[in-house]
């Protein structure tokens, strides 16, 4: 098995050499820092060469919201609204955690999270954004409350206290080098909930979070790094709902504009380049990751697109690109020895690529040990003990553990050479990052895939739908003979029933048109009937028995700016729900387009 070959190679004298580094790799100012998230066995960290970890800081566990809290000045920050106090026991526990990591030569970056506590759910909290949906927030993580003077006071005091206590590398309490403000802001409904909010509202909220965090922390710790948090979703949305999801590209551009208008904030980027499919380690096969600035996703496959994008002058700070840490990303190991080997090989390729990308300071792998609560994902360097009472108790080191240990050492050439022997040609073609420059429009897109100004790209999630009775409704891609098109995946209900997605939009000009096509993603029994409605009126319908796109271009009776209701309907024709449909690039365009 492949992992046995890794063990042999690591035990042997590593004489193999790699080809000379590219000019980009030679331009790296400092070695790429290797790290893990949520470390469990701290003694394992030096054994595998860990230099950088992220830890989570939970606001309500550290802050003491009671008026009768500790009066010890060591655990308090004075503010115009009075002292803001911290829980001494929780702070001392954090001291020990940070010191234990520092003693092992490990840099610490903290991810600041704002969960919905039981107390907040029952009685509210000055820490939570006032529009956080405390009942429906999927992961019970809220945005920060900057809407009230009290909320701003707690927020500012938190960052001031943390920087004062942990800002000096020689601090007896330990050293924290930087702070990630929130988690995966583009998918804000899931990870940074402020209720249903427009893209602009999310950008303004997060720009102010970064600005205030920077001002408060840098006053105590001038070298502190403050990071935004971006997931792998770039120029699309994770789901087709513009009030719950946005893309990293829009958010980054707009937050930079807003912070620059407010005087400038030298924030950096904590990026998560997971594969698009979290359960498939073969990131090189991902059609969603393209080599153009309008790529839907940026993953391990095309991370150089992000680095090139950050070179743009409007995004720079003091003439220099913002720095990047890869603060959370992992590869699923599956359930077999073969899939564990694949995980190890995929990591080898990812490290080989990223080590050759200047501007990325750290590759912090997620995660050290599997966690049973992570939706079945098995990302860890270690498996977890299923019989242990607590989650993430390490049981067995995977092949990835040895490959990870070799990364950045003299053993790496031999380990990577072994991975090369088993990786497919399309994966090896990615080993050296593409130099760019990259086009604005990725060459994989079919003609017409770009949504023009004043148009509404339903297939890109630009409008919200109310969806009835669908087994599945999501953004998708459709391969055509001319390239890739954005699409909406529409799976009717079981039993061959009917599902309708209804959009209410403002007409983009007088006499607009709805253009696009339909196709079958899966053809099972007797096909689907597609129908398009304007209000209650049937505009168009077509029945497909087998895959093959059928276009439509329909005039819409609407006045510029007035409400327009469109329905996209699929009928399973009583076939038991096996057939599944695609709406290819449905777009409402002005009459002059």
Structure description:
Residues 1-24 form the signal peptide. This is DUF5722 domain-containing protein. InterPro entries: DUF5722 (IPR043780), GH (IPR017853). It holds the Pfam family DUF5722. It is a single chain. The chain is α/β, with parallel strands linked by helices. Helices cover 25% and strands 25% of the residues. An eight-stranded parallel β-barrel has the order 1-2-6-7-8-9-10-11. Strands 14, 16, 17, 19, 22 and 24 form a six-stranded antiparallel sheet that branches. Helix 11 links the parallel strand 9 and strand 10 (324-329). The longest helix is centred in the middle third of the chain and has 22 residues, at 199-220. It is globular and about 70 Å long. The model is unreliable at 9-25 (pLDDT under 50).
Set down the secondary structure blueprint:
Elements lengths: L1 H10 L11 H4 L6 E5 L6 H4 L4 E7 H4 E2 L11 E4 L2 E5 L1 H16 L3 E7 L4 H6 L25 H18 L11 E4 L6 H4 L7 H22 L4 E6 L17 H14 L6 E4 L31 H7 L14 E6 L7 H18 L5 E6 L16 E3 L9 E4 L1 H8 L5 H11 L2 H4 L27 E2 L7 E4 L3 E9 L2 E9 L6 E9 L6 E10 L5 E7 L2 E8 L5 E6 L7 E9 L8 E10 L4
Parallel strand pairs: 1-2, 1-11, 2-6, 6-7, 7-8, 8-9, 9-10, 10-11
Antiparallel strand pairs: 3-5, 4-5, 12-13, 14-24, 15-18, 16-17, 17-24, 18-23, 19-22, 19-24, 20-21, 20-23
Helix pairs in contact: 1-13, 7-9, 9-10, 12-13, 12-14
């Amino acid at each position: 098995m492949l992992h046995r070959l890794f063990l042999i190679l690591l035990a042997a004298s590593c004489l193999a050499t790699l080809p000379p580094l590219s000019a980009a790799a030679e331009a790296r100012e400092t070695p790429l820092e290797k790290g893990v998230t949520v470390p469990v066995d701290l003694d394992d960290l030096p054994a595998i060469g860990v230099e950088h970890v992220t830890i989570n800081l939970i606001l309500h566990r550290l802050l003491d919201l009671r008026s009768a809290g500790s009066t010890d000045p060591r655990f308090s920050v004075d503010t115009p609204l009075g002292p803001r106090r911290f829980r001494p026991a929780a702070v001392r526990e954090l001291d020990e955690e940070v010191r234990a990591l520092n003693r092992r030569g490990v840099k610490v970056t903290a991810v600041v999270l704002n969960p919905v506590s039981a107390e907040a759910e029952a009685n509210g909290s000055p820490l939570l954004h006032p529009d956080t949906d405390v009942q429906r927030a999927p992961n019970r993580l809220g945005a920060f409350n900057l809407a009230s003077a009290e909320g701003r006071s707690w927020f500012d005091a938190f960052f001031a206290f943390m920087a004062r206590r942990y800002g000096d590398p020689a601090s007896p309490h330990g050293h924290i080098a930087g702070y990630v403000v929130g988690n995966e802001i583009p998918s804000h409904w899931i990870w940074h909930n402020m209720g249903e909010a427009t893209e602009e509202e999310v950008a303004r909220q997060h720009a102010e979070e970064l600005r205030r965090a920077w001002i408060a922390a840098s006053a105590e710790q001038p070298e502190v790094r403050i990071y935004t948090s971006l997931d792998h979703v770039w120029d699309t949305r994770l789901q087709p709902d513009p009030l719950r999801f946005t893309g990293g590209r829009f958010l980054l551009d707009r937050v930079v504009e807003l912070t620059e208008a407010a005087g400038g904030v030298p924030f950096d980027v904590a990026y998560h380049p997971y594969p698009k499919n979290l359960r498939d380690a073969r990131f090189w096969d991902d059609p969603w990751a393209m080599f153009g600035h309008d790529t839907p996703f940026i993953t391990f496959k095309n991370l150089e697109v992000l680095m090139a994008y950050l070179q743009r002058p409007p995004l720079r700070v003091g003439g220099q690109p913002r720095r990047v840490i890869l603060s959370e990303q992992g590869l699923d190991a599956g359930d077999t020895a073969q899939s564990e080997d694949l995980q190890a090989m995929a990591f080898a390729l990812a490290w080989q690529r990223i080590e050759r990308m200047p501007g990325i300071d750290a590759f912090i792998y997620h995660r050290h040990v599997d966690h049973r609560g992570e939706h079945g994902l098995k990302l860890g360097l270690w498996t977890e003990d299923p019989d242990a009472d607590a989650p993430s108790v390490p049981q067995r080191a995977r092949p990835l553990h040895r490959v990870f240990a070799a990364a950045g050492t003299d053993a790496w050439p031999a380990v990577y050479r072994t991975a090369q022997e088993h990786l497919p040609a399309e994966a090896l073609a990615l080993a050296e990052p593409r130099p760019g420059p990259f086009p604005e429009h990725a060459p994989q897109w079919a003609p017409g895939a770009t949504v023009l100004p004043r148009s509404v790209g339903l297939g890109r999630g630009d409008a919200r739908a109310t969806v009835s009775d669908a087994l599945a409704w999501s953004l998708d891609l459709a391969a055509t003979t001319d390239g890739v098109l954005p699409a909406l995946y529409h799976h009717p209900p079981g039993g061959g029933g009917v599902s309708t997605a209804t959009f209410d939009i403002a007409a983009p000009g007088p006499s607009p048109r709805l253009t696009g096509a339909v196709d079958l993603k899966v053809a099972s029994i007797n096909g689907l009937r597609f129908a398009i409605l304007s209000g209650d009126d049937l505009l168009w319908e077509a029945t497909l028995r087998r895959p093959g796109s059928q276009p439509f271009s329909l005039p819409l009776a609407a006045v510029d700016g007035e409400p327009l209701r469109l329905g996209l309907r699929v009928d399973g024709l009583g076939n038991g729900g096996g057939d599944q449909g695609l709406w290819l690039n449905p777009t409402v365009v002005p009459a002059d387009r």
